[in-house]
From TrEMBL:
Keywords: 4Fe-4S, Iron, Iron-sulfur, Lyase, Magnesium, Metal-binding, S-adenosyl-L-methionine. The gene is queE. One of its GO terms (molecular function) is 4 iron, 4 sulfur cluster binding. The keyword 4Fe-4S applies. Pfam families: Radical_SAM. This is 7-carboxy-7-deazaguanine synthase. It is an enzyme of class 4 (lyase). Mg(2+) binds at residue 41.
Length: 239
């Protein structure tokens, strides 16, 4: 039996990327190997996992951490009408063995920072959807920027789109994201992904100009299906 630290489990609709609006169970792992300057989510370990049993009720039941894979599978299976189960965090790939031990019968949708290719190998055959971020962070936030890019490319190679798995890429763009960095990484992974989503950062003071995103999109469209989609769940205030 595997155990993992999880901060929350709830049912909502996917608010980001090409699957926006699909009904999902969200399983949020704690712990992360990065420290993105725009991160909107607490990643610290929590004593309990809050579980919203009825979607949208804002009523939570607390379960002590860590949770077993059986407990998590049971909670997820209690939600109805699910398209898939979003594994998010924090960084879910830190808990690859736990993910492999989940048994829900519902397709798994991984939300990852794509920096842990060795962990990705352990779960790749269990995943139906991979929402893979490319983290273009200020170099001061990275231990080894070159290794970071190599790991990202290797992670996309491991989790690439196949007959059984859709892998797409999201890049959170701020006004400080360098065009050259985006162009370089997209060129390296475009063969592995079904689409590229440019996700403007949600904090107003960090947002890029619309014209900047539109010109980026224009430059990628020859190579890859490129869309600009902001976070939609924040607009109407659901989880
Ligand atoms: C909180 S992360 C957890 C999963 C994984 N660690 C990752 O970063 O992909 C979930 C998604 O939220 C996005 N995100 C986090 N903060 C954001 C912000 N301020 N604006 C827009 N997207 C954000 C991340 O880029 C990622 O796509
Ligand atoms: N509705 C909704 N959609 C999401 N898509 C990615 C999320 C995440 O935090 O990983 C997220 C989230 O937290 N809520
Ligand atoms: S990788 Fe994801 S969870 Fe970790 S700090 Fe960055 S956005 Fe937050
Ligand atoms: Mg979120």
């Amino acid at each position: 039996m595997m155990f993992a630290p999880i901060s929350e489990i709830f049912c909502s609709v996917q608010g980001e990327g090409p699957y926006v609006g699909y009904r999902q169970a969200f399983v949020r792992f704690t712990g992360c190997n990065l420290n993105c300057n725009y991160c909107d989510t607490p990643v610290e370990a929590t004593k309990v996992c809050r579980v919203e049993k009825k979607a949208g009720s804002n009523v939570f039941q607390n379960i002590e951490n860590p949770l077993s894979s059986d407990e998590v599978s049971e909670i997820v299976k209690s939600f109805s009408g699910l398209h898939s189960v979003s594994l998010t965090g924090g960084e879910p790939l830190l808990h690859a063995e736990f993910i492999s031990s989940l048994d829900t019968g519902i397709p798994l949708y991984l939300e990852s920072n794509m920096t842990l290719p060795h962990m990705a190998k352990k779960v790749k055959d269990n995943l139906s959807y991979v929402s893979g971020d490319v983290k273009l962070l200020p170099h001061s936030l990275l231990e080894d920027p070159e290794l970071h890019l190599d790991s990202t490319i290797e992670c996309f190679r491991v989790l690439k789109t196949t007959q059984n798995r859709d892998c797409f890429c999201k890049i959170v763009v701020t006004k400080d994201t360098p065009v050259d960095d985006i162009e370089g990484i997209v060129g390296a992974i475009s063969g592995y992904i079904s689409s590229l989503i440019l996700q403007p950062v949600t904090q107003k003071d960090m947002q890029p100009e619309p014209g900047y995103l539109l010109s980026l999109q224009e430059s990628f469209l020859n190579d890859i299906d490129t869309r600009i989609i902001p976070q939609t769940h924040k607009m109407w205030g659901c989880l």
